[in-house]
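Worked example 3 (structure in, sequence out).
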């Protein structure tokens, strides 16, 4: 926990908004060209700290959710010791997200509920490059970083713990987030934001983008049977298709959220984001979706534009999804997927009918080995009767004795492997083929999901170094283990 006061920074595509833990301290900077060069956030922060005479603070950086660079998943895993949960999570997250390269992302997760048998887990992944750039930008200025998080986490500190839906009318896109009991239940894009409206105006009037942006701010609005000038009518007509499309998608999303557990009995709908200032937009959307939406504001604030930055600034005061903090991941390199075979929990469940199969397999292999040993021993006994000074007979004796030693060792290894396998296979994994060649074990089988294969792999580590060689779309797999001597 940071002792310094925390400054929240909402970094969007078009602007930077900054708030402190005191709602009256707010600052907004807008300069798209500077943002593309990575200079706007730095300059805005310096201006903010100078204006409010802040000498020493920690930063809580909030990033917009990006479908191309981030993933969001809620799933369940079996209850297990914390150590095993830590090991299993990278594998489980990869199975949930279908990411091919876990080295390219940072991942954070937190238990958000569950039952006596299963944990409910929220997991977020973000491209490492995105986090590293933000981290390095501020670290170069020797600012202390308390948190790097995504917008839904920041918003979660501002709302109450009742079921809520937040519509963020941003510059780049419009996004809907559903929260219940402080937990992110849904997050998704519902279409373009203010940038698209500006583009619509630019095309209608055949003017530059920055000119269209100014015209939108001066004369843009949604038609509400008001008497307007011809130019305002024309601006309204230019953006209406995009507004209606966005409003329809919001309505469809709200209907989807109504079917999520905990939202069936109703919820409050809030709005935030700079694009929400477009006159009559909120009235139009409220009427279209059949629900009233109200501004989301933090304590001591009246402006919904600052809900995200205000929420980020509360990182110190409100403990909320504290593990979804990517600043903690920057210095910790995620392990490469194939090197983390230990990525699953130990599930001690009887194999039921599968035990019969392994017992039969074990008996067959042991009988074969015992027969081979018996035949070799008979050969040695016969040679001992005939042994003399003849070199050929001595060589035969030596070869037969080596064969006996090899077969005895192989018998011991085979018996050990077969009996150990009885206790290593999770209930949701079926084994189709087993190959044992000296100390090398190859197992082919089928599982219900990725994590089941991980559970099996971690158990096989008890025998020796284990690798998952391949996993197919139908969850068939091959695992190899080099059995310890």
């Amino acid at each position: 926990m940071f002792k310094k006061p925390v400054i929240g920074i909402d970094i969007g595509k078009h602007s930077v908004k900054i708030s402190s833990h005191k709602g009256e301290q707010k600052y907004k900077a807008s300069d798209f060209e500077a943002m593309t060069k990575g200079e706007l956030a730095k300059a805005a922060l310096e201006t903010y700290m100078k204006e409010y005479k802040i000498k020493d603070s920690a930063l809580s950086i909030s990033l917009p959710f990006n479908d191309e660079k981030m993933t969001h998943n809620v799933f369940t895993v079996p209850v297990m010791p914390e150590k095993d949960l830590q090991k299993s999570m990278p594998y489980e997250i990869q199975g949930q997200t279908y990411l091919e390269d876990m080295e390219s992302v940072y991942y954070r997760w937190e238990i958000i509920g569950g039952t006596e048998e299963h944990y409910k887990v929220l997991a977020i992944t973000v491209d490492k490059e995105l986090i590293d750039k933000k981290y390095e930008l501020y670290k170069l200025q020797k600012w202390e970083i308390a948190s790097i998080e995504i917008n839904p986490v920041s918003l979660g500190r501002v709302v109450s713990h009742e079921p809520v839906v937040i519509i963020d009318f941003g510059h780049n896109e419009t996004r809907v987030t559903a929260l219940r009991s402080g937990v992110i239940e849904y997050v998704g894009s519902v279409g373009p934001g203010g940038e698209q409206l500006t583009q619509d105006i630019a095309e209608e009037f055949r003017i530059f983008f920055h000119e269209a942006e100014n015209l939108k701010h001066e004369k843009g609005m949604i038609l509400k049977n008001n008497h307007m000038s011809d130019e305002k009518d024309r601006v309204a007509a230019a953006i209406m298709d995009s507004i209606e499309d966005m409003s329809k998608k919001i309505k469809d999303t709200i209907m989807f959220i109504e079917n999520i557990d905990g939202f069936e009995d109703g919820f409050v709908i809030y709005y935030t984001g700079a694009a929400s200032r477009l006159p009559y937009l909120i009235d139009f959307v409220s009427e279209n979706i059949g629900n009233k939406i109200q501004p989301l504001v933090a304590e001591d604030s009246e402006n919904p534009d600052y809900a995200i930055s205000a929420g980020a600034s509360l990182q110190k005061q409100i403990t909320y999804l504290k593990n979804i903090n990517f600043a903690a991941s920057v210095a910790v390199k995620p392990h490469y997927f194939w090197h983390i075979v230990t990525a699953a929990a130990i599930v001690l469940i009887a194999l039921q009918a599968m035990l019969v199969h392994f017992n039969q397999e074990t008996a067959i292999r042991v009988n074969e080995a015992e027969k081979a040993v018996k035949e070799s021993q008979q050969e040695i006994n016969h040679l001992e009767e005939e042994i003399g000074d003849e070199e050929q007979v001595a060589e035969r004796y030596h070869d037969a004795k080596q064969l006996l030693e090899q077969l005895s060792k192989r018998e011991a290894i085979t018996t050990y492997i077969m009996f150990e396998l009885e206790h290593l296979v999770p209930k949701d994994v079926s084994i189709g083929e087993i190959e044992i060649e000296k100390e090398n074990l190859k197992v082919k089988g089928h599982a219900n999901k990725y994590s089941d294969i991980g559970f099996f792999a971690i158990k096989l580590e008890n025998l020796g170094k284990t690798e998952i060689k391949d996993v197919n779309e139908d969850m068939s797999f091959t695992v190899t283990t080099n059995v310890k001597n």
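Notes: The two ends are 48 Å apart (CA to CA). DSSP finds 13 helices and 17 strands in the chain.
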